[in-house]
Every structure is written in C-alpha cells, then in structure tokens.
Amino acid sequence: MKILVTGGTGFIGSHTCVELLDAGYEVVIIDNLSNSKKEVVSYIERITGKKVSFYENDVCDKDALRKIFNENNIDAVIHFAGYKAVGESVLKPLMYYRNNLDSTLSLLEVMDEFKVKKIAFSSSATVYGKPNSLPIREDFPLSTTNPYGTTKLIIEGILRDLYNSDNDWSIAILRYFNPIGAHSSGLIGENPNGIPNNLMPYIIKVATGELDCLGVFGNDYDTHDGTGVRDYIHVVDLAKGHVKAIKKILKDNGCDAYNLGTGKGYSVLDLVNTFKKVNDVDIKYQIKERRKGDIDACYADPSYAYEKLGWKALKDINEMCKDAYNYVKKEDRK
Ligand code: WQD
Prior knowledge:
Layout: E1 2-6, H1 11-22, E2 26-30, H2 39-48, E3 53-55, H3 62-71, E4 76-79, H4 86-91, H5 93-113, E5 118-124, H6 147-165, E6 170-176, E7 178-180, H7 199-207, E8 214-217, E9 229-230, E10 232-234, H8 235-251, E11 254-260, E12 266-267, H9 268-279, E13 285-288, E14 297-298, H10 303-309, H11 317-330
The structure holds UDP-4-deoxy-4-formamido-beta-L-arabinopyranose.
The site of UDP-4-deoxy-4-formamido-beta-L-arabinopyranose (WQD) has 19 residues, from α7 and β8.
C-alpha cells in the first residue's frame, strides 16, 4: 500500500512517515520545503532503512500533483501541508486562506480525478475554541478565534460536504492537541529558527542558551497553578495515530473526526519543572501578561479514538521532555 504524505518533511509529517514505513507502507512525500529541510528525507530513510519517493513541489500545483498520481499508484493520502502559526495568521489572513484552502482544494480535485478517495486530514484542537467544559469530546461545539484555526474548520466542512456528495470517500479528520517531543534517534524533531511561538521550542532555546529567559504568559488562569493547561502529546504517539487512521480509512468509507490527545492536562510550570528535572538543566522564566487569544485549559477525551481506531497515547510527559531535548543536543552531530 502506497501513501502520499503532503508536508512529509515537517515535524509531524516526518514522524508519521517513519511510522508508516515501519508499519510496512510505502511512502511518497510532496513538500515545498517552505518550513522544513530536504535532509529530513534522508533521516527518515536512515531511521527506517527504507526508501522514500520525494517530490519538491507545492500542493497548490495541480500539474505536479497529477505527475505524482501518474507515477505512483497512491492508495490514500495524509494531508499535513499548510501554514500553521496562529500569530502569523492574524497578521496575514489572506496568505493563510489562500495557501491552506487552495492547497487542499487542489489536492482533493486531483484525488477525485484519479479516483483516490481516502484521506486523513491534519486538523487541530483549536477548532474547539474555548470549551465550556473538560475533557473535550468530538461532538463539542466548534468555533475559532484566529484565521489559522478557521482554515482548519473550513477544510473540515469541505471534507464533510465532499463525503455527503459521494459516499465513496473515506475521510479521517484528526484533531491534534499539543504535539511535542521527537523520535528517540534524535534525527528528526522540531527546533524552529528565530523566536518560537510555541512553549516547548521556547523552553529548549532557553535550555541551550540561545534565548535567555522564558516568558510565562499569565499566572492568573483558572488552573491548579494559574498557568495555562494543555494536553501535550508525544509526536511519536501522534504519528502512530495516523497509521491507525490510515488502516481505518483503507477498510471503511465514511467521514469522522478523532481527538488525538493523551487526556491529561499539564500547566506551563508543570512542563518547565518536568523539563528541568529530566534533563538536569535550569530554565529561567518570568511571569508576563497573558497572550491574546489564549484559553485557561484544554485537554482531550481520547476515548473515541480508542474505540474507533484502537489508538491511545502511551508516552508520558517525562519522555516527551527527554526526547525533545535529545533531538536538539544531537542537532549539531547529525
Ligand atoms: C501552550 C501554553 C501559552 C509560549 C498552539 C496552536 C494550536 C497548535 C499548537 C497547530 C499556553 C504558554 C507559550 C511561551 C507561554 N498548533 N506559553 N510562553 O497555544 O496551546 O496551541 O500550538 O496546530 O493550533 O493554537 O500552544 O505552545 O503556543 O502554548 O507561557 O513562550 O504555553 O500561554 O498556555 P497553544 P503553545
């Protein structure tokens, strides 16, 4: 079975390619390298001992997509490619709508042309907005507070309408909570350039000395220690969830959404203190003002994913912190 992975050299995409290959699938990657590096392909091959077909193209380019489908007998697609920075999406909404929607529509139209009607889509817990209660279930109301999240919500709607128009489609909408960590090899992971938006990459840059001090965005939230609570999930667990989703869509038709989270919430200070303990490093931090748009707490009820996909997260917060730092320490010795 051959799976096309759009955005397959990215953080979650590359980990998913490793798990797909380890599970015996063949992998084809399309990625324009706008937020990743080509050497990730060789790292995926080194980790798994298997070859990957790589196309350096943009998913908006339908002719490039047609070439891939003509040259490969694709059985299903996992669609990661898209812009994903919340703050940037507020500043550049048109860029986000154009890129994330155009790429998805181009992909679905070419899939339809080639009668490949099985897709797993990379959505996000951000579509739940500020939940009225916790833990969050898939049938909770959906609302978004930023253009990035709205592109995810619109694409979920496109996928549902597509299935309603043609029940031959088989669609898994995967709503991620907060992916962190890295593959134990230390060859793939996340370490964005410049000032990170997200918590773990920022903690890591303080641990390596690249940045001096972590700003903790608010300590007056309605949580056990006042700092924001999130459902951090090891990126390898998340990747394995995609393999389970592929198995499901290869077997059954339908269109359904699944929470990919651990079901456990940890605060900013929980994560900082765990990172310090397991990596034996100091992390200087200062309490700052709340970040606009942040919510107090967010964590999943992952039981539906377990019931329907037979998947649950296995790795704990200690392993997430250890693996995340291990990746950065190895970065200069790849
Ligand atoms: C986590 C917690 C912050 C940085 C976002 C997107 C979501 C998904 C994951 C794409 C919050 C606090 C953060 C810092 C801090 N991305 N924080 N200082 O906002 O839960 O989710 O990333 O799919 O769609 O919304 O993740 O890591 O930015 O923040 O105190 O320098 O850490 O306030 O409580 P978030 P995050």
